[in-house]
Amino acid sequence: MTAFHLGVSTSGHDPALAIVDDNGAVRFAEATERFVQDKRAWGIAPDHVPHLESALAQVGFDAARDTLAVGTSWAGVKAELGKAPQDALLPARDTLWMQGLQGQLHATAGRSLLRLGLADAPPDPMRFDHHLCHAVAAAWFAPVDDAVCIVLDGEGEVGALSVFDMRARRLTRRFRSWGPGSLGTFYGWLTGLCGFDWRKGEEWKVMGLAAFGQVIPELAEVMRGMVAVDRGRLRFADPETLRRATDRCQPHVRRPADPVEAAADLAATGQAVYAALADQVIADCLDGDERLPLILSGGCALNSSHNGTIRDRFALPALHVPPCPADDGNAIGAALLAYMRTKGCDAVPRGDGSPYLGSTVAIRMLDKLRVSARGLAVRDMGDGSARAVADCLVQGRIVGVMRGRAEFGPRALGNRSILAAPQVSGMKDRLNAEVKGREAYRPFAPVVRLADTSAWFECAQPSPYMSVTLPWHASRRDMVPATVHADGTGRLQTVKRDTASWMVDLLDACEDLCGIPVVLNTSFNIMGKPIVHSVEDAVAMLMTSGLDAILVEDMLVEKPGAAA
């Protein structure tokens, strides 16, 4: 018998599930949006019945033998706190909508066990503090025993910031922010000013656009006065001050008819203010003691532009950001906390660092693809698949890769990725226009071998989950123009053989063929859609976009006339 622990992220947005076994190992973790192919999956149950059924099958769960306990990523219901929603930045109606979704999913968590015949009465889930779930999930990925852990979020049970001390992998909360004040809310507001939609997760567009603008000093001063940092705690200014500040920002707002570039200075200013506020939080939390590594989690930890500046500026031994710092990652935190409570232990288990925790490719669809891919060239490349893809890339072709287990978190890390050669002329524009269908300014990520990082980037540091953006060495930029952003940076992924052997083989092959061991990596999706989940999703994108080929496991599928 195995005692499994199911963690569900019950925020109402970005639902996910995770399964931990009775040894404290994360056996499965996946965002609901992948399974249902609905971006951010607002309001969908994290234990969505078919998704949970599939996940249990993939971990070998046996209903006749095994047990399943449930943990949630919130200790209580936000709407029951009795506090009026703060509407100076984001509309109160959005807060009320989200509170309704959170309350619904919190109340029904675990009910899918009834449908699957795994319970005879509604389960009584273990309920865990939201920020503690963030911290535990992040600690599971961090290869250290002692650290300072900062959770910077849109919101938690009572505030948007928590600080934990980890010693011998035991987490103790040092303090939390209690009043209204949130860098996540600030950035969501900024996203709206720039003409994007935070509900769709378009904060990334602001980060990319910021590289094209200049900071407006007087606007930065206004924005900076909107949020106070007091001994690490965050608090918004009083309502009247916020009202005056937002009014002064209105002349800079991008209107629907304006080109995206019109918001570049606004994006640059807001990003600079965010970075200054986050730096003050970090400085207050470290309090002059930078001897320990820093673990950073919460939705704000997706700001890779700021993340890339933290380690060296604070002289930290290391910065660790998990692949899933936002609310989907809390499914792992809830599952681990359920395991820890069941076992009576208070030390967070240490994972192996692998983000490849999701679904595998359905073998039956592979077999079907072999015989029914009409009009497509299908070749089984076996052990030579990395070399075959490298051959495609150096010829200027674009290949979608779907192999192994899916990555957990919002960023494609090689197993559900679109790959291209960054040295090919016009590749960035071709990808944006013909494949991704997104704005021309958006950057693409480079993949490099960990051992090569210092040869290509300044301020070199590991970045296995694309969590940091670093400056390229000036002498290298012209060699890989498709992955160099407007400010000379790249949001890199570093790989090593023990965790990403196929990608290392690909980089080795590219170096052998063209002398450049760098590959462009972007998520296997089109704008507005989640990363592909099924073989059918991958084939559909091949046939409806500018992709030249896809690799499904080790099977190369090419469009007519594209085969070498």
Please give the count of helices: 18
Oligomer: single chain
**How many domains would you count in the coordinates?**
3
> What general outline do the C-alpha atoms trace?
globular
Please give the order of strands in the largest beta sheet. 13-22-21-14-15-20-16-19
> Which residues form runs of ≥5 with pLDDT under 50?
none
Radius of gyration: 23 Å
Structural class: alpha/beta
Q: What's the CATH first level of the largest domain? A: Alpha Beta
Please describe the biggest sheet, giving its number of strands, its sense, and whether it closes into a barrel. Answer: 8 strands, mixed
By CATH, the architecture of the largest domain is named: Alpha-Beta Complex
Question: What is shown here, in short?
Answer:
It contains 18 helices and 22 strands. By secondary structure, the chain is of the alpha/beta class.
Description of the molecule:
With 564 residues, the chain is α/β, with parallel strands linked by helices. The chain folds into 3 domains: 152 residues, ATPase, nucleotide binding domain (Nucleotidyltransferase, domain 5), CATH 3.30.420; 138 residues, 2-Layer Sandwich (Nucleotidyltransferase, domain 5), CATH 3.30.420; 196 residues, DHBP synthase (Alpha-Beta Complex). The chain is 34% helix and 18% strand. It has 18 helices and 22 strands. The strands form 5 sheets. An 8-stranded mixed β-sheet has the order 13-22-21-14-15-20-16-19, sandwiched between helices. A 5-stranded mixed β-sheet has the order 3-2-1-4-5. A 5-stranded mixed β-sheet has the order 8-7-6-11-12, sandwiched between helices. Helix 6 packs antiparallel against helix 10. The longest helix is centred in the middle third of the chain and has 23 residues. The N and C termini lie far apart (51 Å). The mean pLDDT is 95.
